[in-house]
Structures are given as C-alpha cells and as structure tokens.
Automatic annotation (TrEMBL):
<dbReference type="InterPro" id="IPR041581">
    <property type="entry name" value="Glyoxalase_6"/>
</dbReference>
<dbReference type="InterPro" id="IPR029068">
    <property type="entry name" value="Glyas_Bleomycin-R_OHBP_Dase"/>
</dbReference>
<dbReference type="Pfam" id="PF18029">
    <property type="entry name" value="Glyoxalase_6"/>
</dbReference>
<dbReference type="InterPro" id="IPR037523">
    <property type="entry name" value="VOC_core"/>
</dbReference>
<protein>
    <submittedName>
        <fullName>Glyoxalase</fullName>
    </submittedName>
</protein>
<feature type="domain" description="VOC">
    <location>
        <begin position="4"/>
        <end position="115"/>
    </location>
</feature>
Amino acid sequence: MALKVEMITFDCADPDALADWWARAAGGDVNAVAPGEFVMVSSEGRPALGFQRVPDPTPGKNKVHLDFHAADKEAEVARLIGLGARETARNSFGPEFDWVVMADPEGNAFCVAGG
C-alpha cells in the first residue's frame, strides 16, 4: 500500500489569516475546521494546505517548503509580493534553471520557478 499526500501543514500564529493568504496566492477554498486553531485550504487534485495555531513559531530554516512553477515567474513573484509575500533570495543551477525564494506573511519559505 502506498501513502498518499493528503495535506501539507504549516505551524503558525494566525491560521485564519494565513489560510486566507494562501487561498489567494495558490488558489483553493478555505475551510475553517476549528476557527482560530486549524484551517484548511483545499483544491481539487492537489494536497490540501493545513494551518495550525502553535504558541511559538518553529525556529530556524524550514525543513520542508512548497515549490511552485509559473509560466511567467517574474509576474508571479510580483503578484505574490503584492499579496504580502517577500522575496528572500534568488538561486540557479546555471542559466537554464533558476528560482526565487520567498516567504509568506508569517515567514514560511516557498519557491517560485518558471520559464
């Protein structure tokens, strides 16, 4: 039996606000399972994103992050910044593959590649 990725869960201070942000950023429907404590963003055909309130944010660098691909990477980065994300770095593996490291409003890392 193989495992199926059902959900990727973020620890956060404000699950309602962060779920709303990710729903606008990546698309999906917000489901406040336990408002203020645990909120999901679901979208057909993709794992759900879960947001659970914790008393203290996890220190240090994320060990897991989301990677996105966009046809127009720079336009998508600009859109996400307009929603409240921030760019933290740019990286590449030579001229053929590059990506932008970003952080959501609570500092969770994610990447946007494109081309």
